[in-house]
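#structure-requests
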Amino acid sequence: MIPVIDFAVPTRYAALPPPTRDRFAPPRVAPSAHGERVRTEDGRELVLRPIEAADVATMQRCFTRLSPEDIRRRFLHAMSELPTPMAQRLCRIDPACETAYVLMDKTERPAEMRGVGRIYVDEAGDRAEFSVLVEQDWSHRGLGGLLMQRLVDDCHRRGLYELWGYVLLENRPMLRLCDEIGFTRHIMLDEPGTALLTLKL
Protein backbone atom coordinates (compact mmCIF):
# COMPACT_ATOMS: atom_id res chain seq x y z
CA MET A 1 0.00 0.00 0.00
CA ILE A 2 1.36 3.38 -1.00
CA PRO A 3 1.48 5.79 1.93
CA VAL A 4 -0.42 9.03 1.54
CA ILE A 5 1.57 12.19 2.24
CA ASP A 6 -0.48 15.15 3.42
CA PHE A 7 0.94 18.40 2.01
CA ALA A 8 -0.82 20.88 4.26
CA VAL A 9 -1.39 24.29 2.72
CA PRO A 10 0.08 27.01 4.94
CA THR A 11 -2.25 29.78 5.94
CA ARG A 12 0.52 32.39 5.93
CA TYR A 13 3.58 32.80 3.76
CA ALA A 14 6.89 34.31 4.77
CA ALA A 15 7.68 37.48 2.87
CA LEU A 16 10.48 36.95 0.40
CA PRO A 17 13.05 39.69 -0.12
CA PRO A 18 12.73 41.62 -3.38
CA PRO A 19 14.91 40.48 -6.27
CA THR A 20 18.41 41.91 -6.22
CA ARG A 21 17.81 43.94 -9.37
CA ASP A 22 14.74 45.52 -7.76
CA ARG A 23 16.72 46.39 -4.65
CA PHE A 24 19.25 48.22 -6.79
CA ALA A 25 16.77 49.86 -9.16
CA PRO A 26 16.15 53.64 -9.22
CA PRO A 27 14.92 55.90 -7.88
CA ARG A 28 15.92 56.40 -4.26
CA VAL A 29 16.69 59.47 -2.21
CA ALA A 30 20.38 60.09 -1.62
CA PRO A 31 21.49 60.39 2.01
CA SER A 32 21.12 63.95 3.27
CA ALA A 33 23.98 65.88 4.80
CA HIS A 34 22.65 64.70 8.18
CA GLY A 35 22.71 61.12 6.97
CA GLU A 36 20.43 58.13 7.38
CA ARG A 37 20.48 55.66 10.26
CA VAL A 38 21.48 52.09 9.48
CA ARG A 39 20.93 49.15 11.83
CA THR A 40 22.74 45.85 11.27
CA GLU A 41 21.20 42.47 12.06
CA ASP A 42 23.17 42.25 15.29
CA GLY A 43 21.69 45.57 16.48
CA ARG A 44 24.62 47.90 15.87
CA GLU A 45 23.84 51.33 14.44
CA LEU A 46 25.69 53.45 11.92
CA VAL A 47 24.97 56.67 10.04
CA LEU A 48 25.33 56.71 6.26
CA ARG A 49 26.15 60.21 4.99
CA PRO A 50 28.14 62.02 2.30
CA ILE A 51 31.85 62.33 3.01
CA GLU A 52 33.07 65.64 4.43
CA ALA A 53 36.33 67.55 4.17
CA ALA A 54 36.65 67.25 7.96
CA ASP A 55 36.81 63.43 7.75
CA VAL A 56 40.57 63.34 7.09
CA ALA A 57 41.70 62.22 10.55
CA THR A 58 38.77 59.81 10.81
CA MET A 59 39.72 58.21 7.50
CA GLN A 60 43.34 57.88 8.59
CA ARG A 61 42.25 56.14 11.80
CA CYS A 62 40.07 53.79 9.75
CA PHE A 63 43.10 52.98 7.57
CA THR A 64 45.13 51.89 10.62
CA ARG A 65 42.48 49.25 11.42
CA LEU A 66 42.60 47.68 7.96
CA SER A 67 44.50 44.46 7.36
CA PRO A 68 47.15 44.32 4.62
CA GLU A 69 44.69 42.21 2.59
CA ASP A 70 41.94 44.82 2.96
CA ILE A 71 44.32 47.56 1.83
CA ARG A 72 45.50 45.59 -1.19
CA ARG A 73 41.92 44.76 -2.19
CA ARG A 74 40.91 48.42 -2.02
CA PHE A 75 43.99 50.12 -3.47
CA LEU A 76 45.22 47.14 -5.56
CA HIS A 77 48.69 47.45 -4.01
CA ALA A 78 50.31 47.44 -0.59
CA MET A 79 50.37 50.62 1.53
CA SER A 80 51.70 50.99 5.06
CA GLU A 81 49.92 54.29 5.78
CA LEU A 82 47.46 56.76 4.32
CA PRO A 83 49.41 60.01 3.86
CA THR A 84 47.62 63.18 4.87
CA PRO A 85 47.65 64.71 1.35
CA MET A 86 46.03 61.55 -0.02
CA ALA A 87 43.44 61.47 2.78
CA GLN A 88 42.66 65.13 2.13
CA ARG A 89 42.17 64.40 -1.56
CA LEU A 90 39.84 61.48 -0.77
CA CYS A 91 37.73 63.57 1.62
CA ARG A 92 37.58 66.84 -0.32
CA ILE A 93 35.73 65.70 -3.39
CA ASP A 94 34.52 67.58 -6.43
CA PRO A 95 30.75 66.91 -6.45
CA ALA A 96 30.61 67.59 -10.17
CA CYS A 97 32.53 64.40 -10.89
CA GLU A 98 32.67 62.48 -7.61
CA THR A 99 30.34 61.02 -5.00
CA ALA A 100 31.46 59.44 -1.75
CA TYR A 101 29.45 58.05 1.16
CA VAL A 102 30.77 56.96 4.54
CA LEU A 103 29.37 54.75 7.30
CA MET A 104 29.98 56.45 10.64
CA ASP A 105 29.92 54.77 14.05
CA LYS A 106 28.72 57.49 16.41
CA THR A 107 28.77 55.21 19.44
CA GLU A 108 32.51 55.96 19.57
CA ARG A 109 34.01 59.28 20.66
CA PRO A 110 35.19 60.61 18.33
CA ALA A 111 32.98 58.95 15.74
CA GLU A 112 34.73 56.29 13.65
CA MET A 113 34.46 55.52 9.95
CA ARG A 114 33.50 51.88 9.31
CA GLY A 115 33.09 51.95 5.53
CA VAL A 116 33.33 54.15 2.47
CA GLY A 117 32.05 53.91 -1.10
CA ARG A 118 32.76 56.30 -3.94
CA ILE A 119 32.53 56.88 -7.67
CA TYR A 120 34.70 58.90 -10.03
CA VAL A 121 32.78 60.11 -13.07
CA ASP A 122 34.23 60.18 -16.58
CA GLU A 123 31.88 62.77 -18.03
CA ALA A 124 33.21 62.32 -21.55
CA GLY A 125 32.29 58.64 -21.48
CA ASP A 126 29.11 58.87 -19.34
CA ARG A 127 30.55 56.25 -17.01
CA ALA A 128 31.95 56.05 -13.49
CA GLU A 129 34.51 53.98 -11.62
CA PHE A 130 33.48 52.62 -8.20
CA SER A 131 35.29 51.57 -5.05
CA VAL A 132 33.84 50.16 -1.83
CA LEU A 133 35.53 49.33 1.46
CA VAL A 134 34.10 48.07 4.77
CA GLU A 135 36.12 47.36 7.92
CA GLN A 136 36.67 43.65 8.51
CA ASP A 137 34.84 43.66 11.86
CA TRP A 138 31.78 45.15 10.12
CA SER A 139 31.81 43.00 7.00
CA HIS A 140 29.27 40.30 6.04
CA ARG A 141 26.39 42.46 7.29
CA GLY A 142 25.19 43.90 3.99
CA LEU A 143 27.00 47.21 4.44
CA GLY A 144 29.04 46.82 1.26
CA GLY A 145 25.80 46.16 -0.60
CA LEU A 146 24.22 49.25 0.94
CA LEU A 147 27.12 51.45 -0.15
CA MET A 148 27.04 49.98 -3.64
CA GLN A 149 23.29 50.51 -3.77
CA ARG A 150 23.69 54.22 -3.04
CA LEU A 151 26.44 54.52 -5.66
CA VAL A 152 24.23 52.88 -8.29
CA ASP A 153 21.43 55.26 -7.30
CA ASP A 154 23.76 58.22 -7.77
CA CYS A 155 24.80 56.97 -11.21
CA HIS A 156 21.14 56.79 -12.21
CA ARG A 157 20.56 60.33 -10.99
CA ARG A 158 23.51 61.51 -13.04
CA GLY A 159 22.17 59.72 -16.11
CA LEU A 160 25.34 57.67 -16.57
CA TYR A 161 25.61 54.78 -19.00
CA GLU A 162 27.96 52.46 -17.13
CA LEU A 163 29.51 51.75 -13.73
CA TRP A 164 32.82 49.89 -13.63
CA GLY A 165 35.67 48.93 -11.35
CA TYR A 166 38.73 46.74 -10.98
CA VAL A 167 38.42 43.95 -8.41
CA LEU A 168 41.02 41.37 -7.39
CA LEU A 169 39.86 37.81 -8.07
CA GLU A 170 40.68 36.93 -4.46
CA ASN A 171 38.10 39.48 -3.28
CA ARG A 172 35.29 36.96 -3.43
CA PRO A 173 32.74 38.90 -1.33
CA MET A 174 32.89 41.86 -3.72
CA LEU A 175 32.73 39.58 -6.74
CA ARG A 176 29.64 37.84 -5.33
CA LEU A 177 27.97 41.17 -4.59
CA CYS A 178 28.65 42.48 -8.08
CA ASP A 179 27.40 39.21 -9.61
CA GLU A 180 24.11 39.64 -7.70
CA ILE A 181 23.69 43.20 -8.91
CA GLY A 182 24.28 42.19 -12.53
CA PHE A 183 27.85 43.25 -13.26
CA THR A 184 29.63 41.54 -16.14
CA ARG A 185 33.06 40.16 -15.31
CA HIS A 186 35.99 40.54 -17.71
CA ILE A 187 39.30 38.83 -16.93
CA MET A 188 42.30 41.14 -17.43
CA LEU A 189 44.91 39.19 -19.37
CA ASP A 190 47.49 41.93 -18.88
CA GLU A 191 46.70 42.17 -15.13
CA PRO A 192 46.79 38.61 -13.69
CA GLY A 193 44.47 38.14 -10.74
CA THR A 194 42.33 41.17 -11.60
CA ALA A 195 38.85 41.41 -13.09
CA LEU A 196 37.17 44.38 -14.75
CA LEU A 197 33.52 44.55 -13.67
CA THR A 198 31.00 46.56 -15.69
CA LEU A 199 27.33 47.32 -15.12
CA LYS A 200 25.12 48.83 -17.81
CA LEU A 201 22.78 51.31 -16.12
